[in-house]
Amino acid sequence: MTLELRNCTYGYRRWKQPVLQDFSYSLPEGLTVLLGPNGAGKSTLLKLAASVTTPQKGRVALDGAPAGTAAYRQAVAWMPQDIVPMPTLTAREYVAYIGWLKGMNRTDAWKQARKALARVELTDKIDARTSQLSGGQLRRVGVAGALVHGARVLLLDEPTAGMDPYQRRVFRDILRGLTGDVRVLLSTHDVADLAEEADHVTVMYGGSVLHHGTTHTFLAHTPPGTLEGRAAEGAYTALLRSHNVAA
Ligand SMILES: Nc1ncnc2c1ncn2[C@@H]1O[C@H](COP(=O)(O)OP(=O)(O)OP(=O)(O)O)[C@@H](O)[C@H]1O
């Protein structure tokens, strides 16, 4: 399975410098953590891969199926950085609605929404209005929305932001429990928490990829003498500094 952006250019304003220019990226197998300072282009990359935005130039495809086609949209799940509550919908209705938008029939979407909410331990909030959930609970609803339709590619934009430590652990267990050839691209500022779990690490800055490789090659940037448990943070900072980027 290959999700690929090839020679993509994307800018939010036509008269401004594009955020991504002639940008190519291929999502490796397993879990890839996407790191980078604010404004690096991480969300933009995820939105292009999720086919919620379309590049002005270049192409995005999954195994040859172009982004935007039904086959592509069903295979790819996206959790946006900002989960906007829908005041009239309950958590279950919200997740089922995402499933339905992704092509599930209503009965399946309804059943799978309950299961997806159980996976993020929100069974007790299943009938709560999304507008009445806390920020962390709403993010867990977002994760459930990404899980509901059995996608082969999960694109998650800062999924753990605002989650308490216990829920971060639950989330990591969900990632570990994904079976089959499911690929995950996950952006985070939570370097220490997730980078060491990943199979691959991508670091972006200024719309470019500074590093893209296995976690092993990423951690090789860790400066000697770094405290235990700080290896990923150390590697990240050292990588940015080696490119003259203030971390
Ligand atoms: N809707 C928008 N309209 C105009 N410019 C935007 C918009 N969204 C993002 N940008 C700009 O695009 C650039 C990349 O933003 P993007 O959100 O992809 O970065 P990011 O790496 O996800 O940042 P963060 O870590 O802060 O979420 C930034 O310069 C940002 O100001």
From TrEMBL:
<dbReference type="InterPro" id="IPR027417">
    <property type="entry name" value="P-loop_NTPase"/>
</dbReference>
<dbReference type="Pfam" id="PF00005">
    <property type="entry name" value="ABC_tran"/>
</dbReference>
<keyword id="KW-0813">Transport</keyword>
<keyword id="KW-0547">Nucleotide-binding</keyword>
<dbReference type="InterPro" id="IPR003439">
    <property type="entry name" value="ABC_transporter-like_ATP-bd"/>
</dbReference>
<dbReference type="InterPro" id="IPR017871">
    <property type="entry name" value="ABC_transporter-like_CS"/>
</dbReference>
<dbReference type="InterPro" id="IPR051782">
    <property type="entry name" value="ABC_Transporter_VariousFunc"/>
</dbReference>
<dbReference type="GO" id="GO:0005524">
    <property type="term" value="F:ATP binding"/>
</dbReference>
<feature type="domain" description="ABC transporter">
    <location>
        <begin position="3"/>
        <end position="231"/>
    </location>
</feature>
<protein>
    <submittedName>
        <fullName>ABC-2 type transport system ATP-binding protein</fullName>
    </submittedName>
</protein>
<keyword id="KW-0067">ATP-binding</keyword>
<dbReference type="InterPro" id="IPR003593">
    <property type="entry name" value="AAA+_ATPase"/>
</dbReference>
